[in-house]
TrEMBL record:
This is Sterol 26-hydroxylase, mitochondrial-like. Residues 16-42 have a biased composition (Low complexity). Keywords: Heme, Iron, Metal-binding, Monooxygenase, Oxidoreductase. Heme binds at C472. PANTHER family: CYTOCHROME P450, CYTOCHROME P450 FAMILY 27 SUBFAMILY A MEMBER 1. Belongs to the cytochrome P450 family. Its cofactor is heme. The gene is si:dkey-91i10.3. Residues 10-57 are annotated as: Disordered. GO terms for molecular function: heme binding; iron ion binding; monooxygenase activity; oxidoreductase activity, acting on paired donors, with incorporation or reduction of molecular oxygen. It comes from Gouania willdenowi (Blunt-snouted clingfish).
């Protein structure tokens, strides 16, 4: 859902990850020195090395884009549309979405140039609808919606316990408990609803697994998703997440001034209210536990939320804002990746066998791997990596042009317009960057030792977690969840 939502918002403002969008609105008066140097590299998209003006850049008109989206049916698969467009227009083209002009960059070399020039406070999108809710209800922005120096402050507080390997490995036991319950649940479902064989809705089950996993890390509590009957409140929360993402896709298509009059705006606000309410209840519960332990002079143990509360670097409202956004970013991303990895394993028996041999050599019998075991399973990691190449959950990243003056100047010889974004679609599935394969997958390409050098490609051909200071905050936890779930399954 995050993926879809991001893609969809990308249609308007090209928000989040994977594609780089250049934030518009800044005057493009470049310093003379830069203008003179104009270092057009020979590997840019401009074959003749001459900067192109916006007018010279090819691409579909607004009507053509609408035709592609709604008549040809690419609305849900805009990444596929971009692949098709790159075949028609080359690695650099512009698309129009009403008043918004988006520059698409489909070249690993150019993507590298953009990503390397992001500056200290990259901007992905202004997420106007999400920010609109927060302003309406006086809620704080989290890492997804915050910008500038405020965003940097949030990241500096959230990063250590999410990204430092020693902290992340301390979540391994928590995740393993969820994995054990998930494996039991899958067995129960097969027995009771699938005639001993089938799990009827594996995607839905993996969603619950990812939800339970991330909640157990963030809130240090179990939500009951692995029980035979999922508690009503938890089920309602999951439904609200889905509704919020679905409504987000629609709301961004309308101008901000019209939102209060839209019939579904109220619903959108109500779903956010529910998400914040549930998160608030969980945070309050944790605070009470901490207070009780403090009164009894007991040592206070906990992980992510406990740390945030005890560190007192954020207000309660800020913690709520951040933790809710972490939760939203951390469910379907992980569950989709596990789904696709399982699909590939199911269809590629050789790879499945190779993985099986790796797993049983490190964890014989029913032993679930701990974090040190996982480090000894390079093939498992390579499978996840290859899945993320073939099915990137966030297939585009947006970057802010404001921090990319040089890059912008390389590409265009004129001032950018206030409504221009630059979007960098994924290259991972483009034959040009990974010519040998669509299917079968080739996880071997990601093995640092024993991998086939011929299969290795441009490092910016596939950047599933983004790059730089604004890269994925949950990357390590996601990797832990994905890798921990496989050996047991
Ligand atoms: C396989 C799973 C995942 C993938 C492929 C993924 C991918 C990404 C990508 C590509 C970005 C954008 C990076 C950029 O803009 O340069 C991102 C951002 C983000 N991700 Fe993930 N993600 C995953 C799981 C998670 C999890 C589990 C969490 C939460 C624990 C999470 C939290 C976030 C947050 C908060 C951001 C926004 C960071 C910011 O703007 O500062 N992600 N993710």
């Amino acid at each position: 859902m995050l993926r879809r939502s991001l893609l969809n918002v990308g249609l308007r403002t090209k928000q989040h990850a994977g594609t780089q969008s250049a934030a518009a609105g800044q005057s493009a008066q470049f310093p003379r020195r830069q203008q003179r140097s104009r270092p057009v590299s020979s590997n840019t998209a401009m074959g003749d090395h001459k900067p192109k003006s916006m007018e010279e850049l090819g691409g579909p008109s607004f009507m053509t884009t609408l035709y592609w989206l709604f008549v040809k049916g690419y609305f849900q698969t805009t990444q596929q549309m971009q692949i098709e467009h790159s075949k028609i227009y080359g690695p650099l083209w512009k698309s129009k979405y009403g008043p918004l002009v988006v520059v698409n960059v489909a070249s690993a070399e150019l993507i590298e140039q953009v990503l390397r020039q992001e500056g200290r406070h990259p901007v992905r999108t202004d997420m106007p609808h999400w920010r609109g809710y927060r302003e309406l209800r006086n809620q704080a922005h989290g890492p997804l919606t915050e910008m500038g120096a405020k965003w940097m402050r949030i990241r500096s507080i959230l990063n250590p316990r999410m990204l430092k390997p020693k902290h992340v490995s301390s979540y391994a036991n928590t995740i393993n408990e969820v994995v054990t319950d998930f494996i039991e649940r899958v067995a129960w479902l097969r027995e009771n609803t699938g005639q001993g064989v089938m799990v009827n809705d594996l995607t839905g089950e993996l969603y619950k697994f990812a939800f339970e996993g991330i909640c157990s890390v963030l809130f240090e509590t179990r939500m009951g998703c692995m029980e035979a009957v999922v508690p009503e409140e938890t089920q309602k929360f999951i439904v609200s997440v889905g509704e919020m993402f679905t409504l987000s896709q629609i709301i961004v298509l309308f101008p901000k001034s019209s939102w209060p009059y839209l019939p579904f705006w109220k619903k959108f606000v109500a779903t956010w209210d529910h998400l914040f309410k549930v998160a608030e209840d969980l945070v309050k519960k944790k605070m009470e536990e901490i207070q009780k332990s403090a009164q009894l002079d007991q040592s206070i143990e906990g992980a992510y939320l406990t740390h945030l509360l005890l560190s007192e670097k954020m207000t309660l409202t800020e913690i709520l804002g951040s933790i809710t956004e972490l939760l939203l970013a951390g469910v379907d991303t992980t569950s989709n990746t596990i789904s696709w990895s399982l699909y590939h394993l199911a269809t590629e028996s050789k790879i499945q066998e190779q993985l099986y041999q790796e797993v049983i050599s490190i964890c014989p019998g029913d032993k679930l791997p701990d974090s040190s075991d996982i480090t000894q399973m390079p093939f498992l990691k390579a499978i996840i990596r290859e899945t993320l190449r073939l099915y990137p959950v966030v297939p585009e990243t947006l970057a802010s042009l404001s921090k990319m003056r040089l890059w912008w100047e390389i590409i265009f010889s004129q001032k950018r317009r206030s409504s221009t974004s630059v979007t960098m679609p994924f290259c991972p599935m483009m034959k040009k960057f990974f010519p040998e394969t669509q299917r079968p997958s080739l996880p071997q390409r990601w093995l640092s030792r024993g991998g086939d050098d011929k299969l290795k490609q441009h490092p910016f051909g596939s950047v599933p977690f983004g790059f730089g200071v604004r890269a994925c905050l949950g990357r390590r936890v996601a990797e832990l969840e994905c890798t921990s779930s496989f050996p047991g399954l």
